[in-house]
Write a structure and sequence with these properties.
The protein is of the alpha+beta class. Pathway: Protein modification; protein ubiquitination.
Length: 731
């Protein structure tokens, strides 16, 4: 009804759609590029947001316009160049080499006003190879030839790039020479290459990675001793093939390399030569020997060494408990009671002996706080990417996941835009100072939903689950993207990842050794536990006989001739159920976490980022809240009138001697009941003024407090104002 053609060519014109009830048939691209229609509906209304009534109006409008190319009616697309009045059909525009930009406002340019690429005189004029089809391509500025914006001598045929983009999709389409994605995609969209917003075609193909499950089975040593040939492999014997621990693409029989145990590591000659040239081979050997001494001869170069505990000087317990935050360091004595519980305020001396458990717990909390401060500084660097341009998300609290998914997938959404949140069922909220509160509340609800969603499994430390429908809908990518955006834009830390999942993300799944606690399925865990704790060979073989189907499904069916074989079997079962089974979800999740450069920073600072991914946020304390705020005063903090009341009040709140909580105070000032991983921007401040009631300014994160004669007056005014303000907002 738009271009008047019957061609059915999805690669050129998009999907051909027919709606019998409305008597409409059109190519999707013809509709998408039409100049007089917009998506006024929701994504599930009409045709992807194009209302049927609007489509019919556009058909009627186009029926009056003549195509400047074929001279027939129905030219719904117009050139956007000022003063240009050319109109044409989508197929006619392709033939005449017009450019259609599948982004933003979906602009179209005629053959005369189309954008062109910069072409300098210095660039070589001779032909080079198109890195997609490998045919020669001339270095000339014409419609059929495109130049890479990120590589100096990379040239492509337009047709090759278009087919590549349709196959790779938005997640995998990138420069074939340097692998650049952002700069390359931006230029290709400008030059009219359509990049569909879907996963790559090879990712959607069933059993596409089946070949990767085949292990290398060949003996590559110069002199093979096996009479049955280099490809012969007999498990649990001297003729079992062991693969190179580094590349996995070379192998040897145990006997051919004089290996006494399967648990010994073996390096192929190629990998040895690489390490020898870099000077690292001898170091790795020494590290392996050191590790083998600690593990009774079992060497594992890929296993991560245990983290070192922070060393503490003598007496550091007392110093830690009595250390003062930035507001208190100037005006409190070393014996300030603000660090002690309410019940101990009158007792200023510490117990001479602390239990080892409390001691280690306090050290752990201190260590985590230091790491989170480092994370905060790193995330602030990433936040520098965020622009002032805003993107609004319309969120329904009753369906947080669907509305968040819809918002993150909208075309205008960009992680680098400032995010504003509007709750659709909170119409009575005041517009003043609620922008930050809505955003903080949204990210808090979103993280809570993700933690309890079907994408993750486990009780406390969670791993990714295998949800085939979620894989098909690319939800793991969206979840990773949401977590990355939340961290940079002021959301809470996830805090629910297992250490195994975190290590898979930062070190790669091939370098991670899962444990029994990572298995979420109770029956599977019970079966593996039974195998692990078998006391004798007969009971082990009996157990394996009972669960033969279970072993076959995991690819772990093998003869067991000794009780010690159970260790390798348990290890393989854990790797299959915790890691191999979720290879696709894990890779998709990793791609999502790359948003705004979060995954890259995680891989650069794994020890630091584990504090916000694997540990729950620390409960707010008087010390934490006090340390958040900076007192603004021209005089010394020690002389600020009212500062002592404020600090005493925080301790009353922490000890439960108040009707409000520390979270209420933080919410009153900043709009957030938690401390974001990226910190507050701007940093919270306090002023003491001669006013009647406290005032919280969420735009500036500032708290103005009244100066009163007595502490009881101060406490009563604080509780009355904070409680009533939050109650009104809630109502």
């Amino acid at each position: 009804v738009l271009c008047g053609r019957t061609d059915d060519c999805p690669e050129k014109y998009g999907e051909k759609r027919t709606y019998v009830e409305y008597n409409l048939t059109f190519h999707y691209y013809c509709l998408l590029m039409s100049s007089g229609i917009w998506q006024r509906g929701e994504e599930d209304e009409g045709v992807d947001g194009f209302l049927i009534t609007d489509i019919k109006k556009e058909v009627n409008r186009a029926a009056k316009l003549k195509c400047n190319i074929c001279k027939k009616k129905g030219a719904s697309i117009g050139c956007v160049a000022p003063k240009c009045k050319r109109s044409y059909h989508f197929p006619c525009g392709l033939q005449k080499e017009c450019i259609f930009q599948f982004m933003e406002d979906f602009r179209s340019y005629c053959w005369e006003h189309r954008p062109v690429q910069d072409f300098t005189v210095k660039e070589p004029r001779e032909a080079s190879q198109c890195t997609i089809c490998l045919d020669l391509v001339e270095h000339i500025s014409v419609y059929a030839v495109l130049k890479s914006p990120c590589c100096k001598n990379a040239w492509f045929h337009r047709e090759c790039l278009q087919y590549q983009a349709l196959s790779a999709g938005i997640f995998f389409f990138r420069c074939t020479v340097c692998n650049n994605k952002d700069k390359f995609q931006k230029e290709m969209l400008r030059m009219g290459i359509h990049i569909p917003e879907r996963d790559a075609s090879w990712e959607l193909e069933e059993n596409a990675y089946q070949d990767l499950l085949h292990c290398y089975q060949h003996c590559d040593v110069k002199r093979c001793l096996c009479k049955k040939g280099r490809d012969y492999n007999e498990p649990d014997s001297k003729w079992e093939i062991k693969r190179c621990q580094y590349c996995g693409s070379r192998g040897t029989h145990l006997a051919c390399s004089s290996m006494k145990s399967w648990e010994q590591n073996w390096d192929c000659m190629e990998c040895r030569s690489i390490f020898a040239k870099s000077g690292q081979y001898s170091k790795r050997k020494k590290r392996a020997l050191a590790a083998s001494e600690k593990t009774n001869g079992t060497t594992c170069l890929l296993e991560e060494p245990p983290p070192k505990s922070p060393r503490q000087s003598s007496g550091s317990s007392r110093n830690f408990l009595l250390q003062s935050p930035k507001m208190m360091c100037q005006n409190l004595s070393p014996c300030s009671p603000l660090e002690l519980p309410a019940s101990n305020r009158m007792t200023m001396s510490l117990s001479p002996v602390m239990s080892n458990r409390n001691w280690s717990l306090s050290l752990r909390h201190k260590h985590l706080r230091e790491k989170r401060r480092e994370v905060c500084n790193i995330l602030k660097e990433l936040k520098a990417q965020v622009k002032t341009k805003t993107t609004r998300l319309n969120i329904n609290v009753e369906n947080i996941w669907s509305s968040a998914l819809k918002g993150f997938r909208q075309r205008i959404f960009s992680p680098t835009n400032t995010i504003e949140v509007n709750f659709s069922n909170c119409k009575n909220r005041s517009k003043t100072n609620t922008s930050a509160a809505s955003k903080h509340h949204f990210f808090q609800l979103l993280m809570l939903h993700l933690q309890n969603s079907s994408l993750f499994e486990g009780s406390s430390g969670k791993n990714l689950s295998l949800d085939l429908q979620a894989v098909k809908e690319n939800l793991y990518f969206e979840a990773g993207k949401m977590i990355a955006v939340s961290l940079v834009h002021g959301g809470p830390s996830p805090g629910f990842f297992s250490k195994t999942l975190f290590k898979c993300l930062v070190y790669g799944p091939e370098n991670v050794k899962p444990v029994l606690e990572d298995v979420a399925d109770v029956d599977v865990a019970q079966t593996i536990q039974t195998i692990k704790y078998a006391n004798n060979l007969s009971s082990l073989q009996s157990t394996l006989q009972d669960c033969c189907e279970f072993l076959a499904a995991a690819g772990c069916s093998r003869p067991v001739t000794a009780l010690c074989d159970k260790n390798m079997l348990v290890n393989d079962l854990l790797i299959y159920h915790v890691i191999k089974r979720i290879t696709l979800p894990l890779e998709s999740f990793r791609q999502g976490l790359k948003t705004l450069g979060v995954l890259e920073k995680m891989q650069m600072h794994p020890d630091v980022f584990s504090s916000i991914f694997c540990y729950k946020p620390e409960r707010l304390s008087a010390e934490t809240v006090c340390d958040l705020f900076t007192i603004h005063s021209s005089s010394d903090v020690n002389k600020v009138e009212g500062a002592d009341f404020w600090m005493g009040y925080l301790q009353d709140v922490e000890s439960g001697e108040s009707v409000v909580t520390l979270e209420d105070i933080l919410l009153f000032v900043t709009g957030s009941c938690y401390v974001p991983s990226v910190g507050f921007d701007p940093e919270p401040t306090i002023k003491f003024l001669h006013i009647r009631y406290p005032i919280g300014n969420r735009l500036l994160n500032s708290l103005e407090l009244p100066i009163t004669k007595t502490y009881q007056q101060f406490k009563n005014i604080m509780e009355l104002t904070i409680r009533n303000t939050l109650r009104v907002e809630k109502d």
